[in-house]
From TrEMBL:
Superkingdom in the source lineage: Bacteria
The protein's name in its UniProt record: Uncharacterized protein
Annotated source species: Xanthomonas hortorum pv. hederae
C-alpha cells in the first residue's frame, strides 16, 4: 500500500526495518515474519532535496504528522486506506541546515 502510494519515489528511497524482513528471508523453512504497520525509509540528500521529497510524498496523498521531540531530519507521514492507517517514517542522512 505505501509503495503504491509512493509511486516513482520508491526508486529514490531505501526501505528498512521490519517491513522488509519478509523480502530478505529466503529460507522456505524459516518462521513467518511478524506483520508491521509502519515503514521506515532513508534518503541520502541535501537539505533542499529532502524537503522536495517531503513535498512529493505529501502530493501522493500522505498527511504529515507533526510530532513533538522529533528530529528535524526525520519526517513521519501517514496514508489512510478504507479501513486502516499506515505510517512511513522518512529519515534524511547527514542533513545540514543551511545557515
Amino acid at each position: 500500500m505505501i509503495a503504491d502510494a509512493l509511486g516513482e519515489l520508491c526508486g529514490h528511497i531505501v526501505f528498512l526495518g521490519g517491513a522488509v524482513v519478509g523480502l530478505l528471508v529466503s529460507d522456505p523453512l524459516a518462521e513467518s515474519v511478524r506483520a508491521t504497520y509502519d515503514v521506515d525509509a532513508v534518503v541520502n540528500l541535501d537539505w533542499s532535496r529532502f524537503r522536495g521529497i517531503e513535498a512529493r510524498v505529501e502530493s501522493q496523498g500522505f498527511a504529515r504528522e507533526m510530532q513533538p521531540n522529533r528530529s528535524a531530519q526525520a519526517s513521519c507521514f501517514s496514508v489512510y486506506g478504507p479501513s486502516h492507517q499506515r505510517s512511513c517514517d522518512i529519515v534524511g542522512l547527514g542533513l545540514q541546515r543551511k545557515p
